[in-house]
Queue: 2 jobs
Job 1
Amino acid sequence: MIPTLETERLRLRPFTPEDTASMHHILNGPDVLKYFPGPQTVTEAQVERMINRILAHWQEHGYGLWAVEQRTTGALLGRCGLQRITETNEVEIDFILDPGYWGQGFATEAGLASLKFGFAQLNLAEVVGIVHPENLASQRVLQKLGMQFTETTEYFGMAVHRYVKFQPDPNQ
Ligand SMILES: CC(C)(COP(=O)(O)OP(=O)(O)OC[C@H]1O[C@@H](n2cnc3c(N)ncnc32)[C@H](O)[C@@H]1OP(=O)(O)O)[C@@H](O)C(=O)NCCC(=O)NCCS
């Protein structure tokens, strides 16, 4: 079962097929996919497959991406959570939000809840952040989450900045 997390302003809940149209709108927003490899627009069918992949990832690994909802309005703001990088056997944090909601600390709030889940519930040793070198907003979020830059390297066939956060020591 996919857990639901609540933060001060957000609800991180399982995706459902009913989220397809809203996610389609969000992913096709201005600059949303600017720093991702591949096409800059997506079809509804691709979003449907994305949601299915997200649900299958939860089934296989016991963690994954949540639908991020604003608690007061119930509006879908985007996605956030943890996903496995098959090639390196790492767990990465991921967030994509609706441009209409950028700059209000929502990615940081959802990211903190995701990291807490990863360390406290999954007992992960570390979580990485993989980001395009020019994606400064995303890097700022990773820094606000307490992640450290490790190196410029290559993932998914592109040059990226790698960040990491280790499980906090409970004795400190
Ligand atoms: C990255 C993203 C999730 C951030 O969401 P958000 O809710 O706006 O993030 P927050 O409000 O928590 O924090 C954003 C921080 O970046 C800063 N920022 C925004 N644009 C910036 C820029 N061009 N240069 C430097 N910093 C920038 C903001 O000022 C803020 O930092 P601050 O709190 O110190 O002022 C959002 O921009 C997004 O969905 N982008 C498209 C998808 C994407 O690239 N995802 C990341 C893939 S690795």
Note: Residues 32, 35, 95-97, 102-108, 131, 135-138, 140-141 surround coenzyme A (CB under 6 Å).
Job 2
Amino acid sequence: MNMLNKVFIAGGAGFIGSHFVDRLLTQPGVTGVTVYDNLSSGQLAYLSHHQSSSKLNVIEGDISDKEHLQRAMEQHHTVIHLASNPDIAKALTEPSIDFDQGTLLTHNIMEAMRITGASKILYASGSGIYGDVGMHEITEDHGPLLPISTYGASKLAGEALISAYCYMFDLKGLVFRFANVVGPRQTHGVGFDFIAKLKSNPNELTILGDGRQSKSYIYVSDVINAVLWANEKVQESFAAFNVATDDYITVTEIAKIAIDKVVGDSNKVKLDYAGGSRGWKGDIPVVRLNTEKIKRSGWRCQYSSSQAIAKSIDEMLNQDFSVFEHHKTNG
Ligand SMILES: NC(=O)c1ccc[n+]([C@@H]2O[C@H](COP(=O)([O-])OP(=O)(O)OC[C@H]3O[C@@H](n4cnc5c(N)ncnc54)[C@H](O)[C@@H]3O)[C@@H](O)[C@H]2O)c1
């Protein structure tokens, strides 16, 4: 069995990171959890229910500060790396963001691991590494890999750095190409966006693209299960896994679920389509991930895409509304 021991979570105050903290603090074999986060999109409030836990150490820091990162990483065995710019469209106005807040951060993480002796990394990659391959169902060995966003390019560069460090410096790395992840404490995403828009105008909902974009939406606990399951079962020094549901849902179907839950009567809301086949430049309208590889290790997804969307919208509606207000002011 591959033990986690003392775990360092880069980006642990964010959406997915805070769910890792919840799980790891109750996981046998975990002796301590350190969250390292600059709170750019994460929030201490996502961890406040663990305030009294002696196993959790929260460090506010930026991964671009190499010395501080290295000091914080001392004495850790496993690194879960989740820190990156979460907003794919942001590169349209800030073209360097995915290098500075993506590729470079992963390089700093790998260097800190090499120097401190942390031996295993579990990395949040994404389906964006594959580029736009239409209806083709993609397996992990698909090629050529031609991302169409700097976000996808940065995730691919991160995977490449991890692979290289694993071979050159005898580290172990598992990379996970997640579908769209949903659940409570989401800081972005289509369901989150629709709730924010409907709260501010319950009469009209603008949908980016033509609404026919069709992807897998996976519930956050299924993602945590996949990563921790693979960590335990997979022996290779480097491996990549797609992590997705077996089904897909369109953006218009998600809008209907959101309207039903936020407004109640879908006839009252005018749907306004911005047009074009994709939500924004760099968006991949159709994503089909084959998940046979991780299933062969024994992992199974609990929720379908529509169940995951419905559950996450219910849960987001119960979370502090100031999160959505914050989102609005940040575009
Ligand atoms: N949510 C999804 O649908 C999804 C899908 C595929 C991949 N991913 C990847 O999973 C990871 C986590 O995503 P998330 O949805 O939880 O996003 P998130 O924005 O909620 O979490 C990212 C965390 O990293 C922190 N961070 C960012 N830059 C940092 C820096 N320079 N130094 C220290 N901390 C920094 C943020 O404050 C935040 O807490 C990301 O890398 C994301 O690209 C997410």
Note: Residues 326-331 have pLDDT under 50 and may be disordered.
